[in-house]
Design goal:
Elements (H helix, E strand, L loop, with lengths): L5 H34 L7 E10 L2 E15 L5 E12 L9 E5 L8 H8 L2 E3 L14 E3 L9 E6 L7 E2 L11 H18 L7 E6 L2 H16 L5 E5 L16 H16 L10 H22 L5 H15 L3 H6 L6 H8 L5 E3 L7 E3 L13 H19 L23 E2 L5 E2 L5 H10 L4 E7 L7 H9 L5 H4 L2 E6 L9 H15 L1
Parallel strand pairs: 4-7, 4-9, 9-10, 10-15, 15-16
Antiparallel strand pairs: 1-2, 2-3, 3-7, 3-8, 5-6, 11-12, 13-14
Helix pairs in contact: 2-10, 3-4, 4-11, 5-6, 5-12, 6-7
């Protein structure tokens, strides 16, 4: 016979009541959540069109500006993204003959604001070169160095930047990776070309920084998947190969390739003893040392004798302005952040990474990594302010959404890449894709524009990728390299800006 336990029954009843309340509450919450999900709507594609004119080299160009977003769909005709862009098209231009250039920055996760307001678009932000731009009012002017006299222009903001977002069932990770990004940007180019009737136009792509990785992949993807043959590819301060272009990953090659930019930076900041007057001859000597004695020393590793090590250390101090003792403690290997801190540590400053001519007061004087890159606070506020003012007041873009300048996607990025031969690499090198595109489209030309003072994508790594393209001697003649005495965004330097436009215009012509 079972005995009735009043105390236990009370506890069981209380537990049951709490359990029922829990499920009721969570059912309500779930219902509200589902209701909210149902009510949630994606932003809609919208464009804003205005008419303008600009005078370049004495010639007036009338053009239409189209700013906004384009809805992208997948192979099942489902909406997957809004792609933000700004297009400038010459009025009364012959669309069959007028060149069309698609341009983008890198990051990954950077909007196209830098190229847009720095050199390519019809408006240009005024900044102080190699110094901090004064605070507002910030200024923008009609850009005499815009490419609009030679080509129509489409500035692209990949998903996660600008106003570009995934929609429908799509998620950010569907776009945030080497191959995902190459595909989505390529599909945008194809859709824009079709929608605007520009298939007959000569077509170019221009990518800066990580835009190099993107450009190499896009050039091949367009040809292989859409039979779209580009007339030209422009690589501005290109990052093409993860391994060759990233120091500090316990691989010796990038240390060799960074060395000459360390030398250029030390020369600029007067840290070279008995500094030679000519930069280029000094860098030629630094390059020769890096590719011979320095590369050999790193290759030998622990087999390096003390005498060999001492000789190499003395040369490293001579070319970089950083003491042999520091280089010795660093085991002959230093990444760009350490160098930027150490070179000017004695004067309590740090050199810039994006453009090592810039410098700023150092934070954490004993640190080994940059707390901030002096380049960005020097020019960034001016670019952001003038772009937003221009978009709102001249292009008449009405949106309550924030224009994302930097999506910070690098730490979410899928770095793997499937090569044209089907082999999947853990780290991308789309110079391989570019070589495939060049061999299958032998009329395509490539222009590379690179600064000496670029510690983000050093010119040694750029030369290396050019020298190692798997193409014939004949196709090598399709590549043009132009160097500038400035950094990553060489167009903030007045003399380089003039030359940049000249080189780009001649390439298109």
């Amino acid at each position: 016979m079972l005995k009735f336990n009043k105390k236990k029954a009370l506890k069981d009843t209380l537990f049951l009541a709490l359990l029922i309340a829990f499920f009721q509450t969570n059912t309500i919450v779930a219902a509200e959540s589902n209701e909210n999900d149902t009510q949630k709507t994606d932003p809609k594609a919208e464009i804003f069109t205005t008419s303008h004119q600009i005078k370049i080299n004495g010639k007036t160009i009338r053009y239409t500006a189209t700013a906004g977003t384009m809805e992208m769909k997948n192979d099942d005709n489902e909406p997957v993204a809004l792609f933000g862009y700004t297009a400038y098209v010459k009025k009364d231009g012959d669309s069959n003959k007028r060149p069309l250039m698609f341009a983008f920055n890198g990051g990954p996760g950077s909007a196209s604001i830098w190229l847009h307001m720095g050199i390519l678009g019809p408006q240009r932000t005024i900044v102080t070169d190699a110094g901090f731009t004064p605070n507002g009012p910030f200024k923008r002017v009609e850009n005499q160095f815009s490419i609009l006299d030679k080509a129509d222009l489409v500035m692209i903001d990949p998903v996660g930047t600008g106003f570009s977002v995934p929609i429908g069932k799509a998620k950010g990770e569907d776009f945030w990776g080497v191959d995902q990004d190459i595909k989505s940007v390529s599909e945008f180019i194809v859709q824009y070309t079709s929608k605007n009737g520009r298939w007959a136009s000569p077509k170019y792509i221009l990518g800066e920084s990580y835009g190099g990785i993107r450009s190499g992949g896009v050039a091949y993807y367009l040809l292989a998947n859409h039979n779209m043959a580009l007339n030209g590819v422009v690589l501005v301060s290109p990052f093409m190969d993860y391994v060759a272009g990233a120091a500090g990953i316990h691989v010796d090659l990038p240390h060799v390739l960074y060395f000459s930019t360390f030398a250029a930076t030390a020369w600029y900041h007067n840290k070279i003893k008995d500094k030679p007057a000519d930069l280029k001859s000094f860098l030629a000597a630094a390059d020769a040392f890096a590719m011979s004695d320095y590369a050999a020393a790193l290759t030998k590793g622990n087999r390096l004798t003390q005498a060999e090590r001492d000789n190499v250390l003395a040369q490293m101090e001579k070319f970089t302005g950083v003491s042999a003792d520091y280089w010795d403690k660093a085991n002959l290997r230093m990444h760009e952040f350490q160098f930027s801190k150490e070179l000017l540590r004695g004067q309590k400053e740090s050199a810039g990474r994006i453009d090592s001519r810039f410098k700023g007061e150092s934070i954490n004087l004993i640190g080994e990594n940059l707390t901030y890159d002096p380049f960005f606070p020097s020019i960034g506020p001016a670019f952001v302010a003038t772009f937003n003012d221009y978009y709102k007041n001249e292009l008449k873009v009405e949106s309550d959404r924030k224009y994302v300048v930097s999506g910070g996607l690098w730490n979410k990025w899928d770095d793997t890449h499937t090569l044209p031969d089907g082999f999947k690499m853990p780290w991308a090198n789309t110079a391989v894709d570019l070589s495939y595109a060049m061999r299958q489209n032998p009329n395509m030309k490539v222009l590379v524009q690179q600064g000496y003072y670029d510690l983000a994508t050093p010119y040694g790594a750029t030369n290396y990728f050019i020298d190692h393209l798997d193409i014939s001697k004949k196709l090598q003649q399709n590549i043009t390299l132009k160097m500038y005495e400035a950094g990553h965004m060489m167009y903030v330097h007045q003399e380089s800006m003039v030359q940049f436009k000249k080189d780009l215009a001649e390439f298109i012509e």
